[in-house]
Amino acid sequence: MIEHTSSQSSNRVYQIHYGASSNISFLNHLYRSFDSLLGGTRPIRLLNDFSKTLGQVGAENPESTMALKTCNKAVLLGDELSLSLAIEILEHFLALHQVLIPVLCPQTLKSDLCAFYDPGSCYALSNFRRRTLLLVLATASLTTKHHKVVDGLISQFYDLTGPSDDNLTMESIEVDCLLISSPYPYACYYTEKGLYSNAYLTLGSATRKVFSVGLHRDPPQGSRPDLEIEQQRKLVWILYNLESWLCVHLGRPSSFTGVQIAIPSPSDPFLLARVKLSDLMNKCSNEIYIPTRGSLLSMWRAAESLLCELHDYEDNVLATLGFGLHHRSQLGELDVQQTILTTLYLHTITLVFRPFAIFNGKLKAQQVCSGSSDASAHTSQPWLDEVCEYALNATKRLIDYLSLAMSSNQNIKNMRYTHVFLENCCALLSYDILHNHHKLPTNVPLITKSLACLSQMRPGDSIQQTITAFQSLLVSIDPDGAWCDSGSNDWVSLNACNGRIADHASPSIHDPSTWHHTDESIEVLNDAVRRVIS
Q1: Residue 237 to residue 264: CA distance in whole angstroms
Q2: Which of 83, 310, 345, 491 has its CA 20 to 30 A from that of 165?
Q3: Under 8 Å CB-to-CB from 367, ≥6 apart: which residues?
Q4: What is the largest CA-CA distance in the chain?
Q5: Whole-number mean pLDDT of the chain?
Q6: Which string of b and e fits 85-123 if b means at least 16 CB within 10 Å?
Q7: How far apart, in whole angstroms, are the C-alpha atoms of residue 49 and residue 53?
Q8: Number of separate domains in the chain
Q9: SS (HEC) of 63-95
Q10: pTM value?
Q11: How far is Cα 309 from Cα 352, in angstroms, rounded to an integer?
């Protein structure tokens, strides 16, 4: 639970829940571990940097400082936003967001945009189509240098919103989908703005509308046109995909839990691949992060099963879509699709094995505090270090992939939602350094490369806070390090980073039946894991 002050009532304090699978939860644990190891002598600067991230103050209003200073009045289409610029922004949406939310027709959007700028045709557009166009432009502008126009666009969007727009219609569900979705799923309006809790609430609203009108089940045969039924199916699966990712990211329960989706699987191979990955993310959340397991052995067996399924998934993606999930990205639409699946795939692997890394770090911290060599002998297990390498290797692969992709493709730089994955990578590598100081030469270049990727994204408060927080952490861990200049905001440079980090084959992990331990040592491990996942 993270304490947060309501933006609507400054004297009211409420609790926002972030579960164990969330970045917020892990950053909180990293921060407390760092504080504990330094004996409560953490620098004030580091406290301030991380408190913004942990409390989500900056993440809830990432563009506030930047946008409000430069946009004091509504931007009117045709006034301050020219048709040529609007077309450019729309093309950004079609290249990036339309891949994720294919619920809108590109040709319709283009013709509506032209009509919007034609005084004779503007008022012929329905209220829904005008609202949709404004929301599309606002969303896409957030990924570009033209992000200053977003406040005016979204103001016009809300001006056109009436009470009837909450009715149970396909149109209202599609608008909710645009409000919460993004490049899997963080590029549409709420998530591009960093309003993750708002996105969660809006997504819940859209999902319940789907359940209320029964779209999660096929209608009686012949009762509706086939094209309409297919569009409804697609919308349900898109919502399921977005819901799965967002719930895992925030560590919150899914609205789809316990609901039987009685419609055929998607016919589109890319959407089907996203749905199957969503199934694995949900399984990870339910079997790894729900604190009902009292044994490290059962937790490991769940992780081992998930890893096998993830490897099978990668093979299936290669066979059906024609690209792997760790090779260098390609150009065009396939590049966006590959990046979406690759980053989520590798992020899911890190989530599967991250609890083992936390558990291992806690054991090492306890050994340091006790100063007992006997305790180390009882709790040190080589297989546990090898298990942790799964998470670390997936982290290395993810950083390497994004670094290469961003260096060659502007579309990937525009996918600002990937900062969520890079933040997790930096946190995991930093946590590894805290408990294994000899990992500094290995992990610091990777963190540096991650921050270099972040520095290439369109600037914003949330991005800068992440960079600043980890700069401060690295400087505090190794104040004399020659690898950084803590006084410079642009101390990370892609050209200054190490060369490409080769993919490492995942280590073979011993079968639990071959572990050599005493009853006493396994009981110590089991007792510790209960504390880690509680």
Answers
A1: 10
A2: 83
A3: 375, 376, 379
A4: 84
A5: 74
A6: ebeebbebbbbbbbbbbbbbeeeebeebbebbeeeeeee
A7: 7
A8: 3
A9: CHHHHHHHCCCCCCECCCECHHHHHHHHHHHHH
A10: 0.79
A11: 12
Residue type, 205: S
| Count of Cβ atoms closer than 10 Å to residue 224 Cβ | 12
Question: What pLDDT score does 61 carry?
Answer: 41
CA separation for the pair 240, 285 (Å, rounded): 15
Asked whether residue 137 falls in the same domain as residue 227, the answer is yes
Q: Give the integer Cα–Cα distance in Å for 311 and 309.
A: 5
Tokens of 506: 């995942």
Are residue 59 and residue 120 in the same domain, yes or no?
no
Give the mean model confidence (pLDDT) for residues 80-92.
Answer: 86
Which of 143-157, 384-398, 407-421, 504-518 shows the lowest mean pLDDT across its residues?
504-518
Question: Which two structure tokens, joined as six digits, stand for 385?
Answer: 């270090």
Domain end marker among 14, 49, 67: 67
| Separation between Cα atoms, residue 100 and residue 102, nearest integer Å | 6
Angstrom distances, CA of residue 221 to CA of 211, 213, 231, 232? 19, 17, 15, 14
Note if the bond before 185 is cis, omega within 30 degrees.
yes
Location of structure tokens 């609430």: 201
Phi-psi sector, 39: left (phi>0), alpha (psi -120 to 50), beta? left
Residue 157 structural domain: 75-264
Residue 190 token pair: 């709420």
Alpha carbon distance 100, 241 (integer Å): 10
Tokens representing 404? Answer: 């290469």
| 126's tokens | 């329905």
3-state secondary structure of 488: coil
Does the CA dihedral 185-189-192-193 come out positive or negative?
negative
Give Cα separations from 349 to 89, 307, 355, 511 (angstroms).
34, 7, 11, 19
Total H helices, total E strands in the chain = 22, 2
Q: What percent of the chain has pLDDT over 70?
A: 67
Residue 527 has phi, psi (to 5 degrees) of -65, -40
39 vs 33: CA distance, rounded Å: 10
Domain's final residue, options 264, 286, 316: 264
- Evaluate whether 93 touches 139 at the Cβ level (below 8 Å): yes
Describe the chain by its helix, strand, coil percentages, rounded to 5: 65, 0, 30
Max mean pLDDT among 139-153, 160-174, 474-488, 498-512 falls in 139-153
pLDDT for position 513: 38
Torsion, Cα 305 310 315 317, to 10 degrees, reads: 150
**Both 283 and 322 in a single domain?**
yes
The answer to whether 63 and 142 have CB atoms below 8 angstroms apart is yes
The first and second tokens of residue 253, run together, are 């329960």
pLDDT category of residue 59 using cuts at 50, 70 and 90: very low
For 247-286, what is each residue's pLDDT tens digit? Answer: 998 888 888 877 788 889 999 999 999 999 999 999 999 9
**CB contact at 8 A, 268 and 502:** no
**Token pair 């399984």 is at which residue?**
283
Of 426, 406, 437, nearest to 350 (Cα)? Answer: 426
Q: What would the two tokens of residue 41 be?
A: 């002598």
